[in-house]
Design a protein that fits this description.
With 195 residues, the chain is mainly beta. It folds into 3 domains: 69 residues, PRC-barrel domain (SH3 type barrels, Roll); 36 residues, no CATH class; 75 residues, SH3 type barrels, CATH 2.30.30.240. The chain has 2 helices and 20 strands. Strands 1, 15, 16, 17, 18, 19 and 20 form a 7-stranded mixed sheet that branches. The protein starts with a strand and ends with a helix.
């Protein structure tokens, strides 16, 4: 089973949105969740367990939930409003009224809801060989029963020279933020392509 990123996601009752990321456990190489962005405003992204994925194609993902059920899943981005004390700024200077006047403002701070010991990977995330940048993530191939990643599909090259390269998960050294680091050099990857 492949988990394509940036493709349409269909619920039992029709198109819901697009897949934007996967969440995985690097230690066990298991994909645990899919992030789905709703097509309608406010375009909320929801965390969907991969256990509800019923079918995937290179262009779409089908899940065994209704749109209503999906909208009850946890949002991927949680907003917290933090109070900040900001001096009032007027007429080119901070306004003083005996003491410095402080205005209370609230600022939205966003947090991604990623389970502990897991990481999120989005389409287009960087892929680094041992000797430098080699490509970008296109999708993951996942064993349907175990939900473990078997291969990373990477897009390599520029414009007309782009090719998809399948990298076995055993070649992934580690994942940090938006970058996947491989145990292979560029030459070793090129050798795999030509074999």
């Amino acid at each position: 089973m492949n988990f394509p990123l940036g493709v349409e996601v269909f619920c039992k009752d029709g198109l819901y949105g697009r897949s934007t990321r996967v969440i995985l456990k690097p230690k066990t190489e298991e994909v645990t969740h899919l992030i789905v962005r709703e097509k309608a405003f406010p375009h909320t992204e929801y965390i969907v367990p991969v256990t509800v994925v019923s079918e995937t194609t290179p262009d779409s993902i089908n899940i065994s939930m209704t749109s209503r059920e999906l909208a009850k899943q946890d949002p991927f981005i949680e907003r917290e409003y933090v109070e900040m004390n900001i001096p009032e700024y007027a007429n080119g200077a901070y306004t003083l009224h005996g003491n410095l006047y402080l205005d209370h403002e609230y600022v939205a701070v966003e947090h991604e809801q990623i389970p502990e010991d897991e990481v999120d990977v989005r389409k287009g995330a960087r892929v680094e060989a041992t000797d430098g940048h080699i490509g970008r993530v296109d999708e993951f191939l996942v064993d349907e029963e175990t939900k473990r990643i078997t291969h990373l599909v990477m897009r390599e090259g520029h414009l007309f020279g782009k090719i998809d390269v399948s990298i076995p998960v055993s070649a992934i050294d580690h994942v940090e933020e938006s970058t996947i680091y491989l145990k292979l050099s560029k030459n070793q990857i090129d050798t795999q392509i030509s074999d």
